[in-house]
Amino acid sequence: MRKQIAAANWKMNLSVSEAETLLDQILATEHHLAANQEAIFAVPSIYISLAIQKLAGKNNVYVAAQNCYSKSNGAFTGEISAPMYASVGVKHIVLGHSERREYFGESDAFLAEKTDAVLAIGSTPIFCCGEPLSIREAGSQNSFVETQLKNSLFHLSEEQITKVVIAYEPIWAIGTGKTATSEQAQEIHAYIRSVMASKYGQSIADQISILYGGSVKAANAKEIFSQPDVDGGLVGGASLIATEFAAIINALK
Ligand code: 13P
Questions:
Q1: Residue 175, ligand 1, Cβ within 6 A
Q2: Which element (helix H / strand E) includes 116?
Q3: Rounded to an integer, what distance in angstroms lies between the CA atom of residue 240 and that of residue 253?
Q4: Which sign, positive or negative, has the C-alpha torsion 235, 239, 243, 245?
Q5: Tens digits of per-residue pLDDT, 47-80?
Q6: Angstrom distance (rounded) from CA 62 to CA 124
Q7: Integer Cα distance of 73 and 94 in angstroms
Q8: Beta pairing class for 124-129 and 4-9
Q9: Which residues are catalytic?
Q10: Helices (H) and strands (E) in the chain, counts
């Protein structure tokens, strides 16, 4: 059975004491993770070691990075590599978030390199895709997302692709309070799975977790996650509120 995942993306938020308080608050909530479920916290890099310490010993709970560089080491001032993250205990790295594509010019080709770097050290890429509003309004979201997936993931082997988590995040729903309806989410998630099946076969496509991101909150998580091809969420704003995120974890199927 493929994994159901609630992933928090804190983005560039919180001071260290706020981060510590939020982790304490989350630990104090009632939340339950079944064997096929995971909670992942993509915190700012500077808080990763703190979060790993705080969450140590919690089953199916992981700390992720929000990005990494494509090279392992060298003269790349300010960057952090996938092997560096692995060395402090990170097992998941978010790649290609729309904010990185938009504000830092990350291309599909660059993201293909980063994906290779993450897989090379045995970590899991949480690979983001998703269309802007203009593409959705033109009805071209399927081909837009398909191109992102083909350009960055289709060079991977069958064994590698089963280690990738895909996060579909329509840009028009990120931080806007607008969510895709559960039908819209299901439709494009099913399409993403069909794209993966066309390249890797149905049984491999069925093993890939596909998360939905874009204004997921406690109030809508259950309905969105109930869709057959939605395997959880990548959550921004609501992940900064302990009770919201705990409810989102509990909405996993
Ligand atoms: P919001 O949940 O704040 O819309 O953010 C979604 C997101 O970008 C998660 O990566």
A1: yes
A2: helix 108-120
A3: 22
A4: positive
A5: 999 999 999 999 999 999 999 999 999 999 999 9
A6: 11
A7: 19
A8: unpaired
A9: 97, 169
A10: 12, 8
Q: Measured from the CB, is residue 237 less than 6 Å from ligand 1?
A: yes
Q: Token pair of 238, please? A: 């609501």
* 9: β partners: 42
Q: Which two tokens stand for residue 119?
A: 């897989």
Under DSSP, the state recorded for 29 is S
CB burial of 92-125 (b: ≥16 within 10 Å; e: otherwise) equals: bbbbbbbbbbeeeebebebbbebbbbbbebebbb
Site of tokens 């993306």 = 9
The dihedral built from the CA positions of residue 44, 132, 229 and 147, taken in this order, carries a sign that is: negative
- Contact in structure between 228 and 186 (CB atoms under 8 Å): yes
- Backbone Cα Rg of the chain: 17
Counting ligand 1 atoms within 8 A of each CB, the residue from 126, 235, 244 with the most, and so the one to mutate, is: 235
State pLDDT tens for residues 138-194. 999 999 999 999 999 999 999 999 999 999 999 999 888 888 899 999 999 999 999
Centre of ligand 1 to C-alpha 2, Å, is 23
The CA distance from 55 to 59, in Å, is 9
- Atom index in ligand 1 nearest the CA of residue 216 equals 2
CA distance 185 to 156: 25
Atom of ligand 1 nearest to the CA of 11: 10
Second CATH level (architecture) for the domain 4-250 = Alpha-Beta Barrel (3.20)
d(CA 61, CA 95): 19
- How far apart CA 138 and CA 140 sit, in angstroms, is 5
